[in-house]
Amino acid sequence: MGTTMDHEGLRHWSKRAADWAADYHATLRDRPVRAPLVPGAIARQLPPGPPDAAEPMEAIWADFERIVPDGMTHWQHPRFFAYFPANAAPASMLAEQLVNAMACNALIWQTSPAATEVEQVMVGWLRQAVGLPEGFTGTIHDSATNATLSAVLTMREQALGWKGLEDGLSGAPTLRFYASAETHSSVDKAIRVAGIGQRNLVKVATDAARAMTGAALQAAIRADRAAGLHPAGVILCAGGTSVGAFDRIAECVAAAKAEGVPVHVDAAWAGSAMICPEFRDLWAGVEGADSIVFNPHKWLGAQFDCSIQFLKDPGAQVRTLGLRPTYLETAGREEIVNFNEWTVPLGRRFRALKLWFVLRAYGLEGLRERIRNHVTWALRSRDQLAALPGVRIVTEPRLSLFSFALETDAATEALLQRINDDGRIYLTQTRVDGQFAIRVQVGSFDCREEDVMLIAKTVQEMLAPCSSDSLPSR
Ligand SMILES: *Cc1c(COP(=O)(O)O)cnc(C)c1O
User: Fold this and answer.
1) According to CATH, what is the number of the domain 105-349?
2) Domain ranges across the chain
């Protein structure tokens, strides 16, 4: 290898990278899930400024191996039970390598017809996979945050008769949006960014199951109307991030319809599970929504970034987000879809290829089996934890997510710290009715039952650090 990194160098080094990737995945189980580092530990190892002279790839590669892998939290680790998963199935990684090589910008159809058309077909495949009726179309965003922002902007403009785009919001009526406190912070962000203002996001009270009901939603909308405010949109929670809450989707959609208010559903995490028909009761009625987002990059194996937004009628969103300056026109091709008009950013990655690879390489049956296993194993882990002295299940499993705690917040926090310092598993926290709780979610693409069973074993050891002689060591 010479010192200049050229296309022959790419041939050599991308083979090295492929070997490295396979080895990395084969040895993930031997690594701590979370990087055991103090802030600054990585930055300290890099020179403070860029090099003037070209460096050989050997040196760059060696520094990568020396510095980066041990500085990572391994999201693909089979014992990653924190946050939500960010799965990268091998077939997805492979597709992304090909996308990387082509490095296209799929902003309009003409800038990569294959990217646009595979995206259209994959949206259709996923629509069928999660059991949505014909008529829904959609697009792929980078994140649920941007999908929800697009939906909020669209609902805002519908309510303003598309005047906000031209006139701004300063003279506009006060618009009101509705969501429960269980919805993700991306909803709050969308409301803020869209100029609605946090105080105009009404956090509708939930019932004992942490669900927004149709009656509560309708009452909130009517109260606002009576006060001279303008209800503009509802965002429903289908699988909340904290403890997996589901609003009563059918009731809430009916209530919103009765009030003439459009509905966006955030199913970022739980949407993947809807490829299994037995879980669809959880979001029954979702076909009444105008917009639905879910992230195949969470639980379906198509790696970040890949967030699908289904739309009953894309017209309103395209009218809101679509701009067609002369330099983006496609002469004589009015029938084609230019997906940048459906999303906030202009530039877009070819995200559909990994879906095509993943759906074919595992089949819906292979993906369903994984999700069903995760749900079953989460239940088993819940039972094992519940049997430990002092452990209390705080929220019961919703799909593969549940939470537990000890007697006091301080004890629970200390336990979480010990678990994560130990490194065999990684768990994160939430607050449930003000109380600190440890979340457990099972969803790693490569996890096995024994990985999940290690959760209770680890917790047991961490509860009694001196009396763990009967337990297998790592
Ligand atoms: C993860 C998550 C989001 C945010 O997803 P991004 O794609 O990271 O923006 C939004 N809502 C819910 C319910 C989530 O679980």
Assistant:
1) 3.40.640.10
2) 7-30+35-72, 105-349
User: Which residue, 152, 214, 159, is CA-closest to 187?
Assistant: 152
- Nearest-10 Cα torsion for 370, 373, 378, 383: -170
Cα of 228 to ligand 1 centre, how many Å?
33
The residue assigned the tokens 């303003």 is 160
Residues 123-148 pLDDT 10s: 999 999 999 999 999 999 999 999 99
For ligand 1, which residues put their CB under 6 angstroms from it? 84, 143-145, 184, 186, 239-241, 266, 268-269, 295, 307
Contact 120, 337 (CB under 8 A): yes
Interacting residues of 418 by C-beta distance below 8 A, sequence separation 6+: 462, 465
SS3 141: strand
Per-residue b/e over 265-277, b at no fewer than 16 CB within 10 Å? bbbbbbbbbbbbe
pLDDT number for residue 131: 98
Check residue 334 and give its pLDDT. Answer: 64
Pocket test for ligand 1, best of 241, 274, 282 (most atoms within 8 A of CB): 241
Residue 266 CA, ligand 1 centroid: distance in Å: 8
Distance CA 175, CA 159 (A): 8
pLDDT in tens, 84-100: 999 999 999 999 999 99
Q: Tell me the per-residue pLDDT of 280-310, one tens digit each, with 9 for 90 and over.
A: 999 999 999 999 999 999 999 999 999 999 9
> 7-30+35-72 adopts what CATH topology?
dopa decarboxylase, N-terminal domain (1.20.1340)
Rounded CA gap, 328 and 35, in Å? 45
Q: How far apart are CA 121 and CA 140, in angstroms?
A: 11
CA distances from 214 to 22, 219, 222, 230, 258 (A): 50, 9, 12, 18, 10
Q: Which two tokens stand for residue 277?
A: 């028909």
For the full predicted model, state whether its pTM sits above 0.90.
yes
Residue 272, SS3 per DSSP: helix
CA gap 105, 352 in Å, rounded: 13
| Contact partners, residue 15, CB within 8 Å, separation at least 6 | none
Strand partners, 230: 175
Please tell me the predicted confidence (pLDDT) of residue 428.
Answer: 97
Comparing C-alpha atoms, which of 95, 150, 86 is closest to residue 310?
Answer: 150
Instruction: Inform me whether the pLDDT recorded for 336 exceeds 50.
Output: yes
